[in-house]
């Protein structure tokens, strides 16, 4: 039987470093911070964007949660930056569950990224169809930050 160590534990507890390294506080034992963003109750159109907030330098995005009281139907949402609209969540529909916070990201390719080297504005982009006008949509970005 082979013992393997998570990347974040190599050099910390596996005996490969003397003295042992300290675990990265942004990744192991970190305090979660969050940005809550409630979309205005409007019928956002295809290609409209909703500003969700700014992740600070040193942040690692851990969770993207969405809560809505109405199915978004065939409207798709992507969550990312101006340079990459789907950096954290690729365009997708969201129909259920309703009235329950649901984790929709981040994608694995973003989850394993190094801490941000600069502040980053995060946007939700609407595509495929207009968003229902009466929908209450709340997005929460949960992140840690390196010291």
What does this structure look like?
There is one protein chain. By secondary structure, the chain is mainly beta. It has one helix at 108-111, and strands at 33-39, 49-55, 59-68, 76-80, 89-93, 102-105, 120-127, 137-145. It contains 1 helix and 8 strands, in the order ββββββαββ. Strands 1-8-3-6 form a 4-stranded antiparallel sheet. The chain has a 4-stranded antiparallel sheet with strand order 2-7-4-5, with no helix packed on it. The longest helix is centred in the C-terminal third of the chain and has 4 residues, at 108-111. The radius of gyration is 18 Å and the shape is elongated.
Q: Could you outline the blueprint of secondary structure elements for this entry?
A:
Layout lengths: L32 E7 L9 E7 L3 E10 L7 E5 L8 E5 L8 E4 L2 H4 L8 E8 L9 E9 L2
Whole-number average pLDDT? 92
Structural class: mainly beta
How do the strands of the widest beta sheet line up side by side? 1-8-3-6
For the CA atoms, what is the radius of gyration?
A: 18 Å
Q: Percentage of helical residues?
A: under 10%
Alpha-carbon distance between the termini? Answer: 37 Å
Which residues sit in consecutive blocks of at least 5 with pLDDT less than 50?
A: none
Please summarize the sheet with the most strands.
4 strands, antiparallel
């Amino acid at each position: 039987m082979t013992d393997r160590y998570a990347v974040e534990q190599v050099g910390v507890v596996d005996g490969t470093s003397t003295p042992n390294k300290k675990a990265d506080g942004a990744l192991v034992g970190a305090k979660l911070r969050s940005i809550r963003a409630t979309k205005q109750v409007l019928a956002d159109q295809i290609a409209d964007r909703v500003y969700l907030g700014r992740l600070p330098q040193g942040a690692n995005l851990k969770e993207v949660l969405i809560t809505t009281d109405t199915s978004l139907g065939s409207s798709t949402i992507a969550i990312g930056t101006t340079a990459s609209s789907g950096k954290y969540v690729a365009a997708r529909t969201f129909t259920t569950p309703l009235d329950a916070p649901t984790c929709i990201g981040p994608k694995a390719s973003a989850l394993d990224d190094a801490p941000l080297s600069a502040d980053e504005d995060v946007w939700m982009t609407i595509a495929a169809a207009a968003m229902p006008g009466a929908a209450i949509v709340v997005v929460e970005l949960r992140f840690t930050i390196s010291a």
